[in-house]
Amino acid sequence: MTEIELRFSPSAARDTGSFRLIELPPELCQLIDSTAESKSPHPILSIKGHPTEDAVMCTADKTYSLRSVVLSNTVLVLTPSRTDPDGTVHVRDQLHEVLELVSSVPKVHKLPVLLRGMEYDEGDEDRRATLPKFSYEQARSEIQASEFEFNLGLRDRRILVLDGWLRPIASAHLSTILGLLLNYLISLGLSHEAAPVEELVSSLAEDYEIPREVSNQIISWFGVVQEGLWKMDVSALVAEIGLALLGNYKHDPILETEFMAKWKNAVGDAFESVVSLQLLSGNYLRNPNDFSGATINFFPSSSLPTEPAARFTELFLTRQRWKSDEIGPFLSDIVVGSKERDKLLLKYARAMTTPEGTWYTARVGYNN
């Protein structure tokens, strides 16, 4: 049996606190092993976070929160000695905790706050030089999200990248451009399955002076572009137009039937069959009324707190009880998967089963 002589390193005092032990989840181990075996470039792992934030670790496409777990036994960090005889190892540090990586929701909710006052609207070309600016690179370094999730967050929040600067587009202006795209598809006899991007972009630029870089990005948000042809995501585009309409009814509810008629009219005969309130889940409240008919009003989950306790407080201040299928969409942006959502419901809500289905009420009382 090989004998090993164990000594404390001369630099042990200086090294104390310099090492961290991280437990990798299976999918991350597999990623690292696969790149090692295939001799492909090693995956880039980065730790992000300001001193006031809990740190996260990001891969190319996923975000993990770092959670400290205290160990019952001390772990010694050993390295071969460079000065002592062969077989001698030095104790460099003693660890009493391990950092666990847990799948986490990317913190892209900070984007609207960082970009407040930088909205892109019709006729804004002359204002570019005077507007406050926040660059793509600045945001990517500050936002706790992988690069894939960050770019997805820009798309989902309708944020343009113009000359390297981030500009969230005004909802009404975006809706207008989408309406024009639908009109062009009909008037030019183009298929929404394979519409030539250049023809659409040129038409918008010539007829309405919409910059090509703006229309190109918008087209990419609502479908797939391959070999110059746009395969439109009909549901996503129709939903965006509906969302812009719904935004006008935040404080004053509108009859559901009236809203649906306005929405269908906005998308035109060719796409009215796609219109469904399900497309707007997590953005509205429906209020049944036996006399005049159900009404709806704008209530976007993106405007709610991202911290779970505060989110549930806001939800139960808005309504004392929620059906399971109603509350779910208002939690999807703060959890990773249905299991985590169910854990939050168990922690912050009380379930009641009735002939109408499952209802959730608050575990604590709130004053409306």
**With helices defined by DSSP (H or I, 4 residues minimum), what is the helix count?**
13
Write down the oligomeric state: single chain
Strand segment tally: 17
Distance between the termini: 73 Å
What level of helicity do the residues show?
A: 25-40%
Quick check: average pLDDT? 90
Summarize the structure.
InterPro entries: Dcc1. The protein is α+β, with helices and mostly antiparallel strands and 368 residues long.
Outline the structure in words.
This protein is an alpha+beta fold and 368 residues long. Among the domains are: 5-103; 107-169, no CATH class; 304-367, Arc Repressor Mutant, subunit A, CATH 1.10.10. Helices cover 35% and strands 24% of the residues. It has helices spanning 12-15, 26-38, 111-114, 136-142, 147-156, 171-187, 197-208, 212-221, 234-246, 256-267, 308-318, 324-327, 337-348, and strands spanning 5-8, 22-23, 46-48, 56-58, 63-80, 88-103, 159-162, 165-168, 195-196, 223-226, 229-232, 254-255, 284-287, 295-298, 321-323, 349-354, 357-362. The strands form five sheets. Strands 1, 2, 3, 4, 5 and 6 form a six-stranded mixed sheet that branches. Strand 7 (159-162) and strand 8 form a beta hairpin. Helix 7 (197-208) crosses helix 8 and helix 9 (234-246) packs across helix 10 (256-267). The termini are far apart. The model has no long low-confidence stretch (mean pLDDT 90). InterPro entries: Dcc1. Keywords: DNA replication. This is Sister chromatid cohesion protein DCC1.
